[in-house]
Amino acid sequence: MIKQVIVIRKDLNMRKGKIAAQAAHASMKVILDNMLKSDYEKYSDWTIHMKKDEPLYRWLSGLFTKIVVYVNSEEELLDIYNKTKDQKMLCSLIEDVGNTEFHGVPTKTCCAIGPDESEKIDKITGNLPLL
Q1: Contact call for residues 126 and 5 (beta carbons, < 8 A)
Q2: Number of domains in the chain
Q3: What angle do CA 36, 124, 15 make, to 5 degrees?
Q4: Tell me, what CATH number does 118's domain have?
Q5: pLDDT tens, 64-78?
Q6: Is 31 helix (H, G, I), strand (E, B) or coil?
Q7: Structural domain of 95
């Protein structure tokens, strides 16, 4: 199964709407980071270059399975994010600018891992509790 896992920092005590927005940012950023601008200058088209057997293609063509889990600190979040990058898996890290909840202080709120094979992601996030 292909899935994406969103890891939220629970220690920030974000409102439910803020959590939903941050999770959406993380999920979308993985896709946006994989978009490339067309080589043809006349158009400003952006495309995603992927093969049909790649996890991103299979996820976009399937169920968009997402699981949301949590950690209790920025340190834990960055540890998960860095482990994911070390495994060369798709991931994104979201840093909120602080306009609504963090008193103007940029704050790392969450990350998205994958989409990728469940077994690969579970090696990194399988022990984290569901949000």
Answers
A1: no
A2: 1
A3: 75
A4: 3.40.1490.10
A5: 899 999 999 999 999
A6: helix
A7: 2-125
